[in-house]
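Troubleshooting: if your tokenizer reports a length mismatch, compare your output against this known-good record of 96 residues.
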Amino acid sequence: MAKIVDIALETPIERGEQKIETLQLRKPSSGELRGLSLTQLLAMNVDELIRLVPRISMPPITEAEVEALDPADLTSCAIEVADFLMPAGKKPTPAT
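Known-good structure output:
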């Protein structure tokens, strides 16, 4: 089962009368990463994120909607994408 995270958007996406206030991202499969650079995704490259987020978002959003995201919301997406791509054994352990 794919890992799914919820991102509460600071600035909702507006589609006519509809407001998207929470975006779900799911861990991408290798095929969904086709044509993208893992290094650039881990570096939180905006162009790579604009291409990836529509592939893994629920509800589905367009590249234009990703481009229009509040920078804080795009950063939240970037952090989750980077976390998806890190192997479990390489992730830092939380300090106690």
